[in-house]
Write the structure tokens for this entry.
Amino acid sequence: MTSTTLAAPRHRRRFRIGHVMVYVVMILITVLWITPTVGLLVSSFRPADDVKTSGWWTVVTNPENARFTLNNYRIVLGIPLPDRPVTSGTRVGMEVALINTLTVALPATIIPILIAAFAAYGFAWIDFPGRRPLFILVVAMLVVPLQISLVPILRDYVALGLGGTYLGVWLAHTGFGLPLAVYLLYNYISTIPRDIFESAFLDGATHFTIFTRLILPLSMPALASFAIFQFLWTWNDLLVALVFLGAEPRVQVVTQRLLSLLGQFGQEWHLLTAGAFISMIVPLIVFFSLQRFFVRGLMAGSVKG
Amino acid sequence: MRPTREISRSPEPSGIGAFLSTTLGRLLVSLFVPAITFLVLYQVFIFLRDTQIPQWITAIIAILWGVGGVLALFTLSNYLIEQLGPTWRRRLIPFVFVGPALAILTWYLVLPTIRSFIASLYDARGINFVGLDNYIYAFTSQEMLQSYRNNFLFWMIFGTGMSVGFGLLIAVLVDRTHPVFETICKALIFMPMVISGVGASVIWKFIYEYRPTGSTQIGLLNGIVTALGFESQGWLLMQPWNNLFLVIIMVWLQTGYSMVILSAAIKGIPSDLLEAGRIDGANEFQIFRSIILPSIQGTLITVTTTIILFTLKIFDIVQSMTGGNFGTQVIANVQFVQLFRQVHNGRAAAIAIILLLAVLPVMYYNLRQFNKQTEAFR
């Protein structure tokens, strides 16, 4: 009796100290983790001279000397300034790259999902000879890294005139995203209870009608999870863009633009910061607004080839 | 997306409708419709490729054309097959559904595996047969040997170890805090996951930037080091440790991923199991070792294999931080250099095959584990 009354508070106190420690450690880790991003964000609002001559943390340690400006963003987005007109030599062209990235990423997300949803339905609900081996072939393609296709596909693109076109990049992203998309959507669509569309079959509806009217709307959660993942993947992709889209500034996406900024304007640190932050805005919006779909897409995305 | 069939099924066809329902009419229509569709799609493609109109208009047209084109092709092929007799309809309909996916996969992944292998036996331009020369290059050249060291030792072992280790530590700690605090911490630690490798490289330039001791530092790491009274360091130039500094960027990006997944697994452990352990007098460390770890073992393997795959194919961080110089070369970057700067298709293909062989066993394991888990989810 006495031993338990003695033990209980001691245990509780130790637990409480441990508890405070957990909070302290977590706050330290979280601060450590966001510091690099905060550094970039702060730097992107500092004037060019300040970025080059003092660390961004001086804004915190020495706040009376801190100056802020939007000029970095203006320059990067091609808005002319009095002391820096937009000419071909000074043009950064992030605004062009942003539109290009959207043009690449949106169809490169929707097209594979559409094709994969059709295929998943076909594999799950239509009986045809060779169904199982073909499905295994699709899933087996998950193991193939996309590097495998660079040499042969580049050769095809040169022959077909697809190099440097959006269609070429969409198809490439579609090809590389399909195995995972088919696999995941199959897992989802094949578990839809059969009686949901049994009555539609009896009414003489075709597979096509059932797919577009029943299956697509029912699969929205699965489609959304995959869509988020594929969108971020295509938005952040560098390799596919470098290989298939080429070096022409007219079609370049943000990651390519940023890479050449790193080389070309290597000393113009203030432009790098604004450029990098612009490239991150869309993924961050997607992340913070669609967080709950995100974790599922993440589990799903873990097997991307 | 409206099914065209319902319109043609409408009763009492008259005039053009009557003609369209005859066999001849059907035949003409079924030749005419695809021809028009392909023509329109092709014309728009040419127009988009060569146009000079304002860029955002091109972008909108391109997006509509791409997505709409795919929809049109599906609707069209379905429509064509519905014109056939019931036997052929039944035989061909499956291929309307799975055909496009199979065709694209065959073009982009199935055939390239074979074609890359063949190309790896030929010279730079793919003209002369050179036997195993490219593989000899891939296993003896200095840059490739350096890549193996970096990929396997630094990226795979250190990178994966740190990402999973930190992820697990954070997941276990954060589980003991208030839900609101937990959500905020997780979101902030996870955030780098959505940043591209190139974006992350720019961010980390501001950490690693080197200025000689005495001048003002703009890199955070050297800022701290000099404030403590030490010499500033060229972090990205000290071989071989510069690899570790690149790996840290990846750890920063990937830890959030392992944390979220492992945290979900930890939350899935029945609370009475943990409670029972505590009543039996186990301390927190014992509970972690004998209850938490065994319960999340499967998830731990998935996360580890996934990050290993990521590290084997690492490209953009190296390409944008050092370009593979100063002893930081990796396999995927050598392939890129061989493909574009050296224009040596044979070597690039051989490297791709090696990458495939390196990824294969890990991917197989990963998939098997993933399969078990998705079954458990249902």
In short: The first helix of chain B runs from residue 5 to 8.
